[in-house]
Amino acid sequence: MSSNYTTIKSLSENTGKQVTLAGWLYNSRASGKIQFLIIRDGTGLCQCIVEKGNVPDEIFEQLKHIGQESSLTVTGTIRAEPRSVGGYEMAVTDAKIISVSEGYPITPKSHGIDFLLKNRHLHLRSHLQWCILKIRHTVIDAVRRFFNDNGFTLIDTPIITSIAGEEEQSLFEVDYFGTPLHLTQTGQLHLESAAMSCGKVYCFGPTFRAEKSKTRRHLTEFWMVEPEVAFIELPGLLELAENFVSSIVSRVLSDNRAELEALGANIEALEKITPPFYRLTYTDCVNILTSDKTKDFLVNQLQEFLEEKKQIETRITELESQDTGKLKQWQKDKNAAELIELRSTLAETEIKIENNPRHAQLAAAFKWGKDLGGSDETIISLMHDKPIFVTHYPKQAKAFYMKTDRENEDVVLNFDMLAPAGFGEIIGGSIREDDYDRLVSRINKQGLKPENYEWYLDLRKYGSVPHGGFGLGIERTVAWLTDQKHIRQCIPFPRMMDKVYI
Ligand code: ATP
Ligand code: MN
């Protein structure tokens, strides 16, 4: 497989040489006898300089008039230019227009999120979206590498299933030749049976949950990777999870540093993500949430939000009161983009200010036994600079398959992993109940029908062993690494309760 074109990614090997790039016009600017074209080719961006006299006159004129996203080839000599995007530049000697694009809807100005989602098929070409696609690719490759290199066997679990692994309210129904079946919410139950064959296994696929809430952390279709291991206890499972997540972070840091920088991700913080992670029990978390320390922490946070709000408002007033008559067009565009950005940050800050007292109240009144809510997780997560394991949740708050702690029958041997700095949960996992009678009684207590779980119960009849596993959500992981507020930016074509655009 080869093409006659040089890729932008490989320009470092081509300095001083004459090459041809094939791509799309990302942006352009002309001033008299010189044009600056930013070309993207799928592997990166390159500034191409077209000087009158260095290219045929007719080409110079054509290039001046083609719109954003026109496809073309450009030929010229490459030189290193640290100040240019990507670090290289082309002095163009020839060009060929392949297809002219006019009136491309997504301009370098900022657009609202609704507009961008409706134009997702085009928005994917924008540099920041491209950066996220590249990072998502690395995350998925790192996931597969980690398990494949550590003796795990890939098991493809079914997408159409007859039993629920999570809350039944979030099942999507499929009419299966007249019988109602469901889209999978997790591969775990099937994976457990494969773990009894291969020992260490994982599944990796699309996962469906009819999430009726519209949060920044929930999609109705997302990708989850789930390892499952025979003969493992909770400490071993936590070690597996921290090594796994650390390996993903270090791969992204080494393969996608430029993309992380472009996205404004916190690289320094990511460099700290090495084992061991923090370990807290659920009960520790309840004590933290109801402590004076947390009360003070939230009061300080409110002050910070109010300060942030003041700063944003000052800048908005400053931009709005500028005399636009004197500004060049590009400066007007830049200001317009900044204003859109500022207004959206302001709206978010105002929501945080509004939520703060409610979150403080929820935390202070937290009662042992309840599941940790999103705001509780956020508080714990904000207090840490590395991921946190929260273990040993109350039995009543958790799924039927989680193993009861034999030393404290009120809790289960489970964990959530919270990403730091306020991001929140990226993994949920547990040791599974391996005792037949206890499992039947949990199934009954939760109002489920044991006859639906016969095959699952068989695993506890024929050579039951301690085992466990977890599920990591790809979109949440990518959103954490790339510092995206909403996970909808971290899957090429997001599906949400109220929105399926394309
Ligand atoms: P939450 O409490 O945040 O809804 P959960 O407890 O339902 O999460 P698990 O069932 O433990 O999550 O699923 C494992 C992982 O799958 C989660 O940690 C998360 O990374 C991811 N995940 C779960 N639900 C969604 C969703 N609706 N959209 C995207 N990712 C999800
Ligand atoms: Mn959920």
In short:
38% of the residues lie in helices and 24% in strands.
What features would you describe in this structure?
It contains 15 helices and 18 strands. It has helices at about 55-65, 115-120, 120-125, 125-150, 190-200, 235-255, 255-265, 265-270, 280-290, 290-320, 330-365, 375-380, 435-445, 455-460, 475-480; strands at about 20-30, 35-40, 45-50, 70-80, 90-100, 155, 160, 175, 180-185, 200-210, 220-230, 280, 390, 405, 410, 415-420, 425-430, 465-475. The chain has an eight-stranded mixed β-sheet with strand order 6-10-11-18-17-16-13-12, sandwiched between helices. With about 500 residues, it is of the alpha+beta class. α4 crosses α6 (about 235-255), α4 (about 125-150) packs across α7 and α10 packs antiparallel against α11 (about 330-365). The structure holds adenosine-5'-triphosphate and manganese (II) ion. Adenosine-5'-triphosphate binds near residues 211 and 487.
